[in-house]
Specification:
The protein has about 210 residues and is mostly helical. It is about 70% helix and about 0% strand. It starts with a helix and ends in an 8-residue tail after the last helix.
């Protein structure tokens, strides 16, 4: 799904550049490609430009179809993880880990930085600071938390995502307490922005035993 989206956007940019030299009203982006794809071409160059735009729209449509499939399948495969992370992020975590079983066996610190392998390797070689998060950055609990608290938010989220993956793999049943505990921890973290204080010791309890 991500490959389709990335490739479609890259090709849409190139298609827009080409179409702009052929058509006066060509627009950029996927929507611009759709408009070009609907044109009746005149001459070989226009036919090729329209054909490229058609490939872009097909890739974009495939991305949407894959997203719909993930939305249907992820909650059945991993009900707690899909509810906590959202179907697409849950699927990304499972894919990056190499499967639900592999994800369930990883410590929360590893889950926290899945998708940030390049940054982690740079850190281990002394060329960069330690990454605070990988793909879980796209989750509202991390992305929409103020920057100084994102490390704590990422740790809290990764801890609960790890537990969710374990429950999904070993039990396969929804655990309401997991979701409520995460909401409470995030409320504690975000309360700091309003003047409340608190150390990371209670927030990082999710990762207890995962070291």
């Amino acid at each position: 799904m991500d490959d389709c989206e990335r490739t479609a956007n890259e090709l849409a940019e190139r298609a827009a550049e080409w179409a702009g030299s052929l058509f006066d009203d060509a627009e950029p982006g996927i929507e611009g490609a759709r408009a070009v794809a609907d044109r009746e071409p005149e001459g070989e160059l226009e036919r090729r430009a329209v054909s490229l735009a058609e490939r872009v729209t097909e890739l974009a449509a495939e991305r949407d179809a894959l997203a719909e499939a993930i939305d249907r399948i992820a909650p059945a495969v991993a009900p707690n993880l899909a509810e906590m992370a959202g179907p697409e992020l849950a699927a990304r975590l499972i894919a990056l880990a190499g499967g639900l079983e592999s994800l369930a066996k990883k410590p929360s610190g590893t889950v926290q930085v899945l998708g940030a392998e390049d940054a982690l390797f740079a850190h281990l070689s002394g060329r960069a600071p330690s990454p605070k998060h990988g793909v879980i950055y796209t989750h509202d609990y991390v992305r929409n938390t103020r920057p100084e608290d994102r490390g704590s938010a990422a740790r809290a989220l990764a801890g609960k995502l790890t537990l969710a993956a374990r429950v999904d793999h070993y039990a396969g049943e929804r655990r309401a307490t997991l979701h409520e505990e995460l909401r409470e921890r995030m409320a504690t973290i975000r309360a700091r922005a309003e003047g409340d204080t608190g150390g990371d010791s209670d927030i990082d309890a999710d990762a207890e035993g995962d070291a």
